[in-house]
């Protein structure tokens, strides 16, 4: 579903906003798929600690807000103090966003691949940690 949404978004952005097509589609797709993988795992981890559906918003909101700020979506990281910006660069949405930016407007194929190594590695680490959390805390049995 995420890939279908991305294809529709790219097409709409090119037609309606006049944006160029992505420079490096494989890096863009990697950012989308890896971002989906890590956030599905983080959602499952948060579900392990959420007692009711009403509490789901409360348990996930802090993580999502920090991720949105850390990825530079809500506030540009350059406008934050350097220590805060450096901390936020390590959040799970930041490398996914960086990969998508590299795929859309980054350098040519070879340059984008070299630039994508660090965010891809950080995203892989977040994915492993999140899935280890799922294996540790998530249970399928009904809650009582």
UniProtKB/TrEMBL annotation:
Report the locations given in the UniProt record: Membrane
Spell out the Pfam families in the cross-references: ABC2_membrane_3
Any one GO CC term of this protein is: membrane
What is the membrane topology listed in the Swiss-Prot or TrEMBL record?
Multi-pass membrane protein
- Is the keyword Metal-binding in the record? no
- In this chain the ABC-2 type transporter transmembrane domain maps to 2-131
Give TM regions. 28-49, 61-77, 116-134
Q: Could you confirm whether the keyword Signal appears in this record?
A: no
Offer an example of a GO molecular function term for this protein.
Answer: ABC-type transporter activity
Arranged from A to Z, the UniProt key words for this protein are: Membrane, Transmembrane, Transmembrane helix
InterPro entries, per database record: ABC-2_transporter, ABC2_TM
- What PANTHER family does the database record attribute to this sequence? DOXORUBICIN RESISTANCE ABC TRANSPORTER PERMEASE PROTEIN DRRC-RELATED, TRANSPORT PERMEASE PROTEIN
The name of this protein is: ABC-2 type transporter transmembrane domain-containing protein
Source organism of the structure:
Dactylosporangium sucinum
């Amino acid at each position: 579903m995420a890939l279908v949404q991305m294809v529709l978004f790219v097409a709409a952005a090119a037609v309606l906003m006049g944006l160029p097509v992505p420079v490096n589609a494989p890096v863009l797709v990697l950012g989308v798929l890896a971002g989906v993988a890590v956030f599905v795992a983080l959602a499952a981890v948060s579900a392990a600690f959420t007692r009711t559906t009403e509490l789901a918003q409360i348990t996930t909101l802090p993580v999502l807000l920090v991720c949105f700020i850390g990825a530079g979506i809500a506030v540009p990281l350059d406008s934050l103090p350097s220590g805060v910006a450096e901390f936020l660069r390590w959040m799970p949405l930041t490398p996914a966003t960086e990969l998508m930016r590299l795929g859309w407007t980054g350098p040519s194929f070879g340059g984008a691949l070299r630039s994508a190594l660090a965010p891809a590695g950080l995203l892989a680490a977040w994915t492993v940690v999140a899935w280890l959390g799922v294996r540790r805390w998530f249970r399928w049995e009904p809650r009582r």
